[in-house]
Amino acid sequence: MAELVQAGKVRYLGISEAAPETVRRAHAAHPISAGQYEWSLFTRDLEDELLGTLRQLGIGVVAYSPLGRGFLSGRITSPDDFGDDDFRRGHPRFTGENFARNLELVERVRQLAAAKGVTPSQLAIAWVLSRGDDVVPIPGTKRRGYLQENAGALEAELTADDLAAIEEITPRGSVAGERYTPEHMANVDA
């Protein structure tokens, strides 16, 4: 990959879902510009050792799934909301008791967002944005209206009181269920 940069075919290198030691080894071979990791009110594993490693090395964070795979948008209210081919049907956070527990968290986010005058999506994205100037969330969307709504997160200002309230209603570890199925979790932080 470093040779591709030297040849002018690639400008920057990034890494995704790598463990801190892997990031360090890659960065030693050639500077890494960005690390792509899942980060949201539901997924905060990055905040352990990894975030410190990225910041120590000057690597920016591209936070994917800042809406918790759509759950934090507040639009998902039942497993029946998923199409037959939707991977979330078998996703640990969207099944059984986990779904019900996580829906309770989403309801708390929805209430806080309404009190703030923003949508749940905007609140969730604004929270990711508040994590630092080196963080860029990349929410996925299928509709132009959702894209416009998500962009509204740039206007949502979160105060210290707002951040404390968010932390109170969605503390680390409050989400029920793993990020992925066991087969896919084996590839995380590899």
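Next protein, fold it too.
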Amino acid sequence: MLAGEPTVDGIVARASRTLGRRWRLLRPLARRYVEATSGRVRPRHRDVVQFLDEDSGAKRAWAEHAGELSVEHWLTDPQQMQPVAAAASWDLPVIESTGALSEWLLLYPSELEWFADLKGLGDRTKRPRINHYHYRELGKGSGAMRLIEAPKPTLKELQRRILAEILNKIPPHPASHGFLRGRSIKTYVSPHVGKRVVLKMDLQDFFANISGARIQTVFRAMGYPESVADLLGGICTNSVRGFGEPYARPHLPQGAPTSPALANLCAYRVDCRLAGLARSAGAEYTRYADDLAFSGGEAYERRVERFSTHVAVILEEEGFRVNHRKTRIMRQGVRQHLAGLTANQRVNVIRADFDRLKATLTNCVRLGAASQNHEGHPSFREHLEGRVGFVESINAAKGARLRRILEKIDWP
């Protein structure tokens, strides 16, 4: 039973007050409702109405007592935080009405509705005052395109507050390593070092395939009333036409500060299921955003193909799409690479990537930095600093070699 979820006795008591008497039909109806909703996030109002409309017992009782059943007292209790059991201990701000949310975000109610855009006005017009995002398309190695949706300054500040004061207070799953303090690409790869076989799988359109409805459910699970959860979800999601599915419907925008944390929360259940599946097969499991990795010994190697099928089924059941073209089974004797790093004997940068960066730095010393800025980076020095810093974080010795070359560059 979820924290805050109505009990059979509670439902019967409230329904009796509403209808003016304790009808015999109420307890069986309450039992069916609790059974239908047990273990789930608190249903929406429309879900309750749909249950009553479809329940055969309710239909039969209404037909038998149509002339007697009537509402005697409408119960209008104030909205309250009703978190699921796991969220009861989280130190989240109490926001129990849309007015309280407006005050918390320092917005007028009309501004709150405008930024949440629950009516989808933003994707129906090209007027900048409605459109809250800047858009940029990036090419993928496969030839497909990735849409970067960067929120404009005011919306970005609202999202940053939601991230800092709500989302960052929720403990992540141990298998999740992306966009989390104290975890990194290195901690994602480390559990798979020296393993007999490594399975790599990829989720397709990870952010865009997480729907706005799913995000609103996450906020309801935290305990926020439906009206508040819908507005919080609206602030953290976007829909835009002209880029095809799934961008046309409300989704997590890749580029918003809240999206990585919300994506990890939406993947929490699948992380639990995949971690359990991996344990049963004697394997390790980690996830970095849309990259999934599994590894194990000889027994796991014998079943890895069948295991990958089970993983794909779980992902599909949880609403994620597998990019099957990127699934790789990497045994010892070949380069076992995950997220741009190798894991055969130790976590390391890929040799070809290191050699290319070293050559770029060397040519910067010999020919000048401008001659090597082929992609037109506006801050080429910071770009190279970042790449060298990344190598240093993975392999200190190799990073030191690159740092010595970097320091010889004569910057204009």
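About the second fold: The chain is about 45% helix and 10% strand.
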